[in-house]
Amino acid sequence: MITKAERELTFAGYTNYFLWLEQSRFGNALRRKAAQGCRVRFIVGDPDSELTRSREQDEGVPLTLSTRIRVTLSELERIKSQSGIEARYSGGHAHLSVFRFDDDMIVTPLLPHRVGHDAPTLHLHRYQDDGMFDRFASHVEELWSDGTPVWGDDRNG
Q1: Percentage of the chain with pLDDT > 90?
Q2: 70-76: long-range contacts (C-beta < 8 A, 24 or more apart)?
């Protein structure tokens, strides 16, 4: 889905950590997409927030949420210069991940006391206005609008 996307890639997972492990040369792919005019955005949790600390206690795993978020931030820092890739912190999506690829979307509602890879995964495709896809897309836009830029030079705030 990343390869086929032409207009929009949005990664609204609390950590987005697994993307860097699962996708070979992920950073290069994102840079290439941005250079081709595709909007590339990341919404992540604030690693220092109370919400993150609370979820870490709930998960109870050695590789903490704050560490996973910081890995993503480090990877984004490496590719952000002159790439057009945007990133914001959000405090409002700790139990839902939404990944958008133009008119396809992966939605993962996180279950209590579980880590992300234990959650169900839904694949949505946009077939109509105001359907399920648009409802999740609207939620992500709200998270983006309410988010805090990761870098002080967020040009599209």
Answers
A1: 67
A2: 71/15, 71/17, 71/20, 72/15, 72/16, 72/17, 72/19, 72/20, 72/42, 72/44, 73/44, 73/47, 73/150, 75/20, 75/26, 75/27, 76/42, 76/150
Q: pLDDT (tens digit, 9 = 90+) per residue, 84-133?
A: 899 999 977 778 899 999 999 999 987 766 666 677 899 999 999 999 99
When pLDDT is averaged across residues 144-154 and rounded to a whole number, the result is 85
3-state secondary structure 81-145: CCCCCEEEECCCCCCEEEEEECCEEEEEECCCCCCHHHCCCEEEECCCCCCHHHHHHHHHHHHHH
User: Which long-range contacts (C-beta less than 8 Å, at least 24 apart) are formed by 66-70?
Assistant: 68/15, 68/17, 69/14, 69/15, 69/17, 69/44, 69/45
